[in-house]
């Protein structure tokens, strides 16, 4: 059995905002006291098993692993949002408090290969790679105002919420443009649905163009918003829920990757049932 990360929970409180103006304030600052607690706890807010080997090894815990290139993502503001792309219309989502390198960077998915039915192979992780430096540590990517008292054990996480079985990486600039566009479409057509009218169509196109490890309905797409911005969308293999996103740092403490984890094949069935 393939397992989700430990502490995957639907009933805990995670960061989804309902005040769009607050969310997208450009001068939002991380509270000093919060940051002090975060620095003390970040060493346990990390994955229980190595994430890097999902992109280097070909077998983990008896599971065949492969990688799939999803194209580049354009980072123009240095602030990154990871979310269900339909959240633009419903609640809005803030960027993580970290500042990331600007530029175009490759996005790669790690796939748990189903050797009997290739298209059924689920996405385990998706990574933005900022540099070629090897990660030596991971910490959860956060917004800056979570209740850190909830974090007690290694592997505990807050995670991002996924409602439609679809998640994405997107720069804050692109998020703002997308949110404005979707809002206008919704105001013009009360029957407008972002998933049905945009994302599902783009996913199907991607599946036809890049069929490997994709169902005909599509499992990922590099979606162009405008000339400057894009979003990389990908399916969450367990559908709706909360999934951890991790900042990877190299030996000098510099950010080298941003990774979302959907599956940990090394977790035992006993741990998953706890």
What's the SSE blueprint?
Blueprint lengths: L19 H4 L8 H10 L17 E2 L2 E13 L4 E4 L3 H4 L12 E10 L10 E7 L7 E4 L19 E3 L3 E6 H17 L5 H16 L10 E5 L5 E6 L5 E3 L1 E5 L5 E7 L7 H5 L1
Antiparallel strand pairs: 1-2, 2-4, 3-8, 4-5, 5-13, 6-12, 7-11, 8-10, 9-10, 12-13
Strand fraction: 25-35%
For the largest beta-sheet, the strand count, sense and barrel status come to: 7 strands, antiparallel
Chain-averaged pLDDT: 86
Give the count of structural domains: 1
The topology string of helices and strands comes to HHEEEHEEEEEHHEEEEEH
The poorly predicted ranges are 6-28, 268-274
- Give the proportion of residues in helices: 10-25%
With helices defined by DSSP (H or I, 4 residues minimum), what is the helix count? Answer: 6
> What is the overall silhouette?
globular
Determine the N-to-C terminus distance.
15 Å
Radius of gyration, taken over Cα atoms and rounded to an integer in Å: 18 Å
Q: What is the spatial order of strands in the main beta sheet?
A: 1-2-4-5-13-12-6
Derived structural class: alpha+beta
Number of strands: 13
Short description:
The protein is α+β, with helices and mostly antiparallel strands and 274 residues long. It has helices at 20-23, 32-41, 87-90, 172-188, 194-209, 269-273, and strands at residues 59-60, 63-75, 80-83, 103-112, 123-129, 137-140, 160-162, 166-171, 220-224, 230-235, 241-243, 245-249, 255-261.
